[in-house]
Amino acid sequence: MGPTGLPGTNGTNGTNGTNGRDGTTSPTGFTSRSVCGADGTTLCALGTQGPGGGFIFFVDTNNDVPGYDYLEAAPTDGVFSGGQARGQWASTVAKCGDAGTADCQLNNLVNYSMTVDYRAVGTGRAATAAIVARHDAGSVAKNVYAAGVADTYSTATASDWWLPSSGELALM
Length: 172
Hints:
Number of strands: 6
Strand content: 5-15%
Helix content: 10-25%
Largest sheet: 2 strands, antiparallel
Shape: rod-shaped
């Protein structure tokens, strides 16, 4: 056997391949909206800081709540500031009750059966919108009742806040 020869030169690199197409949404409901971490790669987890600056209190790992991958509590209390109420829970506008003519402080938004529809996880946003619509119809400034304050609340990175439903509040 003879001596080993000198090493040869490296070959040229091949061309880059094409990027694959986007995949489908995971059956667990996680999408790109499920990313919460400041690094842009961390998936939402209970108790972690969310994209709006608050804390994640619900992660829909089983895709049980259509339209929501996670729920985040606001980082500060928009209704109470320094222990002082900025508004009241409801106003006395006469746009509530079955006929839409009753005092909103003393009556359900519409009727009891509709109120029950707004108790589940994932219904707080719709309930807040319904309350705001009733008060808007009565020309009530949003800064004097809780749903209006929540509806106008914003942080540097989010402006889609609402009051929690009783189901959402229980999760918090």
